[in-house]
TrEMBL record:
This is PIN domain nuclease, a component of toxin-antitoxin system (PIN domain). Keywords: Hydrolase, Magnesium, Metal-binding, Nuclease. The keyword ATP-binding does not apply. It comes from Geodermatophilus sabuli. It holds the Pfam family PIN. It comes from the Bacteria. InterPro entries: PIN-like_dom_sf, PIN_dom, PIN_Sll0205, TA_system_RNase. GO terms for molecular function: hydrolase activity; metal ion binding; nuclease activity. Residues 3-118 form the PIN domain.
Amino acid sequence: MRVLLDTHVLVWAAATPERLGAAEELLADADLRMASAASIWELAIKQRLGKLSLGSDVRTWSRRVARELVLDHLPVTADHAAAVEHLPDVHRDPFDRLLVAQAVAEDAVLLTADARLTGYGDVVRFIGGPPTA
């Protein structure tokens, strides 16, 4: 199975894997684990605004986490961005919508802590939540 981690799940996997619950095993068994460039962008924005502290700059953090978790960085392509147009209006957050579009395009399952994303169907796997601050 190919899995794409949403932004919360990416942070949890790196910092507090015990929050992943059963998804920790799913991650371990995945054929391919991916983190989207969109998530890295979202983290950079949140860290810049002071809403998050990763303990280092986002570039260093994302490279370290990719090594530790054996993650591939998934770039955002024009096809990914255009695919958002065809998603139902389940969720308005542009980062989340892009992650769903990427999961569909990459034949992956999006692991998320946001129950609202389950409205997109089988492409999304809710691992628990809601996200806490």
